[in-house]
Amino acid sequence: MENLTTWLLRQEQAGNIDAELTIVLSSISLACKQIASLLQRSTIISITGAQGTVNIQGEDQKKLDVISNELFCNCLRSSGRTGIIASEEEDVPVAVEETYSGNYIVVFDPIDGSANIDTALTTGSIFGIYGPDQQCLFNIDDDSTLDQAKEKCIVSVCQPGSNLLAAGYCLYSSSVVFTVSLGRGVLGFTLDPAYGEFVLTHENIRIPKTGRIYSFNEGNYDLWDEKLKKYLDDLRKPGPNGKPYSGRYIGCLVGEIHRMLLVGGIYGNPKNKNAKNGNLRLLYECAPMSYLIEQAGGKAIDGRQRILDIKPEQIHQRTPIFLGSPEEIEKLEKYLS
């Protein structure tokens, strides 16, 4: 069996990635192992529940939101290869003092689906890695947040998801699965708790062209566009086989996408009357996941255009998103057009 470390070294030897990116990805996998361990013991060591603070989006933070963010940042800082970090839990991007030579820009959501933590349901981490823009590298004396002018510069670095060099997620569920793409397909590595290593278990993941599962938060049904309602109404009607589509909703983007990569279907988080721009963040949730879906042969759109073509104007910019099996997305597009 091949583990993640060996696979990364093999990619480096083949010239698919450089040594610095190998170290960054290894650092991210280490953070994921640490988070997985904390999640398994969270109730025992009393780190469930609310932190009593809110993030920049006004969302209540869980204790593990804050702890996981620190773990990610510390692992990336210590790698010596990361220049700038942008996280859901940070107000603005953070430049890393220890890494003057570190060129990579890492964006991440340390705990996706944190509302599931207290009930021991599926959660995950999402990450994306961008290359450097030589005009936007800063030489600073200590860790510091960037002012608005520099933030705009970082946004220009983290441009459309089509610029991603690598992206992935780590699923924390009955198994811990580290799924990654370097732009040459999608692979999944499952954590073997006996050895503490991610072992290659899913090679060249390809999303089925169709699927019979849809994943929408139908509690918002009355707030959606009439065209989208018509689409969902038709999904619930029996098809040629006499059965309707099955509705599944976990409340964790990582869990939804992991299932979809393996069995197909469609996931949607559309705009609604209360959230004109949707609920999910473009830079560190939608773009990395859309990158993975496309690398696996699927499609990802905001209802009008390809997610990976959208240029973020703000670090925490939100967007509607629909992604999944190619034929299912094409079917949706006919309803929305």
What secondary-structure arrangement, pairings included, does this model have?
Blueprint: H1 4-13, H2 19-41, E1 50-54, E2 60-62, H3 63-79, E3 82-87, E4 94-95, E5 104-112, E6 123-130, E7 144-145, H4 148-157, E8 166-172, E9 176-181, E10 186-192, E11 197-202, E12 213-215, H5 226-235, E13 246-247, H6 253-263, E14 266-269, E15 280-281, H7 282-295, E16 299-301, E17 318-319, E18 321-324, H8 326-336
Parallel strand pairs: 3-5, 12-13, 12-14
Antiparallel strand pairs: 1-2, 3-4, 4-7, 5-6, 6-8, 8-9, 9-10, 10-11, 14-18, 15-17, 16-18
Helix fraction bin: 25-40%
Q: Look at the structure and give the mean pLDDT.
A: 89
Sum up the overall morphology in one term: globular
Strand content: 15-25%
- Number of DSSP helices? 8
Radius of gyration: 19 Å
Structural class: alpha+beta
Structure description:
- It comes from Forsythia ovata.
- Its cofactor is Mg(2+).
- It catalyses: beta-D-fructose 1,6-bisphosphate + H2O = beta-D-fructose 6-phosphate + phosphate.
- With 337 residues, the protein is α+β, with helices and mostly antiparallel strands.
- The protein is globular and about 55 Å long.
- It has a nine-stranded mixed sheet with strand order 7-4-3-5-6-8-9-10-11, sandwiched between helices. Strands 13-12-14-18-16 form a five-stranded mixed sheet, sandwiched between helices. Strands 1-2 form a two-stranded antiparallel ribbon.
- It is built from eight helices and 18 strands.
